[in-house]
Amino acid sequence: MTERLTYAAAGVDTEAGDRAVELMKDAVRRTQGPEVLGGVGGFAGLYDASALTRYRKPLLATSTDGVGTKVAIAQALDVHDTIGFDLVGMVVDDIVVVGAEPLFMTDYIATGKVVPDRVADIVRGIARACEVAGTALVGGETAEHPGLLAADEYDVAGAATGVVEADDVLGPDRVRAGDVLIGMASSGVHSNGYSLVRAVIRHAGWALDRHVEEFGRTLGEELLEPTRVYAADCLALARDEAAQVHAFTHVTGGGLAANLARVLPVGTVATVDRSSWEVPAVFRTVRDLGDVPRGDLENTLNLGVGMVAVVAADGADAALTLLQERGVRAWTLGTVAALDPADAGDDLVAGTKGVRAGAVRLVGDYR
């Protein structure tokens, strides 16, 4: 008689998934206010949208993203409770760019084998980051994919929905010549460019447990530093009339110039002064270990600038003061001007991500 095959024999342990839910559900509930109905474990997350009636013309904003190959660092170090900040930051901070308040988020985890403690650690990190962002975590899914992923491998993704009053949408339509760029410091590499970073450290033969004096900790600890979640800070800035915010840009894949160009109107150019900030040690280390050209660094990594606010010139001081009060290191990064049609060259960045918009020029040298 042939042996009967079961789902468990095929490599899927549904009971392990149930145990993971039990371990994570308290952290998830802490993100949920009275607007979230049904609790943990339903087929769909329910969110009471009656609050939208206070808007004259509410626009829903949505975003989805993952963490990329940074998960390889988490897996190598067997540290999984911080990667959630990377996921939430990549998703909700794209929503606040248009001035939208992120209302709720869902997550998806695919893994070769459900290890309840590991899955719970990932979700606890997501939940903590949602608390920081002021976003409810209303649901998610953990999928076991034996044969597709190794037992210790996983990937994470998420999606969020937010709302903004139509009259308050931020973006290129508000930006004017004379506006000032306010840079907000990143917490490190964030969640973009890890394919380059990992290639560099592999080429150099550096181990993740190597202590790096400039970092004051190991290489792995530096690379696993969670992404800063700017959502609450950006919303506070957008609501401050004195700051006169016209646009935000989230510095993710493509680097500072490519992402900044997306939120500028056609016919303008932003000049960014490289000397206005000091590039953090982790980026200098990547540059030196891999002899990476400056162009590749600028087109791949945030180099210390995680978010940019474009504000009216007479709102810059108020913006800087508010961010300082909220514990966000910020500085004047540059200015926006009208683009001279005769002003063109290889140093101008424009037309990125398929968007017809403004242009950006980086000038000077880093400190």
Automatic annotation (TrEMBL):
Keyword Coiled coil: no
Pathway(s) the chain acts in: Purine metabolism; IMP biosynthesis via de novo pathway; 5-amino-1-(5-phospho-D-ribosyl)imidazole from N(2)-formyl-N(1)-(5-phospho-D-ribosyl)glycinamide: step 2/2
Record carries keyword Nucleus: no
Swiss-Prot/TrEMBL keywords: ATP-binding, Cytoplasm, Ligase, Nucleotide-binding, Purine biosynthesis
GO cellular component terms attached to this protein's record: cytosol
Primary localisation category: cytoplasm
GO-annotated biological processes: 'de novo' IMP biosynthetic process; adenine biosynthetic process
Residues annotated as domain PurM-like N-terminal: 56-164
Residue ranges constituting the PurM-like C-terminal domain according to the UniProt record: 176-338
Catalyses which reaction(s): 2-formamido-N(1)-(5-O-phospho-beta-D-ribosyl)acetamidine + ATP = 5-amino-1-(5-phospho-beta-D-ribosyl)imidazole + ADP + phosphate + H(+)
Family the UniProt entry places it in: Belongs to the AIR synthase family.
Protein name: Phosphoribosylformylglycinamidine cyclo-ligase
Protein species of origin: Isoptericola sediminis
